[in-house]
Design a protein that fits this description.
This protein is of the alpha/beta class and 255 residues long. It folds into 2 domains: 3-97, Udp-n-acetylmuramoylalanyl-d-glutamate--2,6- Diaminopimelate Ligase, Chain: A, domain 1 (3-Layer(aba) Sandwich); 115-249, Histidine kinase-like ATPase, C-terminal domain (Heat Shock Protein 90, 2-Layer Sandwich), CATH 3.30.565. The protein has helices at residues 19-25, 39-47, 65-71, 83-97, 131-142, 147-167, 196-199, 209-213, 221-228; strands at residues 12-15, 30-34, 52-55, 75-78, 115-122, 168-177, 181-190, 231-237, 241-249. The protein has a 5-stranded antiparallel β-sheet with strand order 5-6-7-9-8, with helices on one face. Strand 1 (12-15), helix 1 (19-25) and strand 2 (30-34) form a beta-alpha-beta unit. The longest helix has 21 residues, at 147-167. It starts with 11 loop residues before the first strand and ends in a 6-residue tail after the last strand. The relative contact order is 0.14.
């Protein structure tokens, strides 16, 4: 899909098979080059406000990815080039158009509750992973929350949802909105985290090889939640579960 919108302009191109890195470092209005064809890869691009996904090595979307992309206005393409050659080709085009261009590395007072809604996530349900966070994002956009803030919240909630899918039995996600703050509370039942401080460090992971193959488990989940939240509190009890409380100030104007 996407042949009728080939003239869509984008600002950046990001190449990665690690979806947590895409969420952490990718910029809005970008194209994602990836070898992952799962629905979670497409959801990651959607959460990061990417415009399109290009599958390298001639791969095609699967597991409902194409339908999700169509429903969320995300363009999908495929190329026979591998990721390295695709990046080289893009770089050469940029240099032709812009000679000399150099690539760049890439608790508030109480208020009336405007909305209070719950979503539920089942552990190990990779087919539906990302559905709850997609609903949260759509809801925030419909009620007119600033797009920059919506992106931050969507990324944080998606990371939290994926942590539940990978490491817990089930969870409840509560979204509460007041005039000055948006609160997201994820309460899961599962194995818990023995050392929360260690888990908050970038690169620490207990993900299996299967999870890594899907582009997750690079140790960016909780750090990415912290990065995108104005406040975050994580408490956990081994053998019972983990609670993640995120707060996002509506008046915050950071990019």
């Amino acid at each position: 899909m996407g042949d009728d919108e080939l003239d869509t302009e984008v600002d950046h191109v990001y190449a990665s098979d690690l979806m947590s890195d895409v969420l952490a470092f990718g910029k809005p209005n970008s194209i994602l080059l990836t070898g992952l064809t799962t629905q979670q890869a497409i959801i990651s691009a959607h959460m990061a406000e990417f415009k399109a996904v290009v599958f390298v090595r001639g791969k095609r979307p699967k597991d409902g990815a194409e339908r999700f992309a169509r429903e969320n206005n995300l363009l999908l393409f495929t190329t026979d080039l591998d990721m390295f050659d695709a990046c080289v080709r893009i770089d050469s085009i940029i240099k032709e158009k812009e000679p000399g261009a150099v690539a760049q590395s890439t608790t508030p007072r109480s208020e009336a509750i405007l909305l209070n809604q719950e979503f539920y996530v089942e552990g190990n349900d990779f087919v539906n992973a990302g559905v709850a966070s997609t609903k949260v994002k759509s809801l925030l956009k419909k009620i007119g929350i600033d797009p920059t803030l919506v992106r931050r919240i969507a990324i944080a909630v998606f990371e939290g949802e994926m942590n539940v899918v990978m490491h817990a039995l089930r969870a409840r996600i509560n979204l509460m909105i007041t005039p000055i703050v948006i609160t997201v509370f994820i309460d899961d039942e599962g194995q818990g985290i023995p050392d929360v401080e260690l888990a908050m460090q970038q690169g620490f992971t207990t993900a299996t090889e299967e999870m890594r193959a899907m582009g997750f488990g690079s140790g960016m989940g909780l750090p990415n939640i912290k990065k995108n939240s104005d406040e975050v509190e994580v408490t956990s009890e081994v053998g019972k579960g983990t609670k993640v409380l995120m707060r996002f100030l509506i008046t915050d104007d950071r990019s």
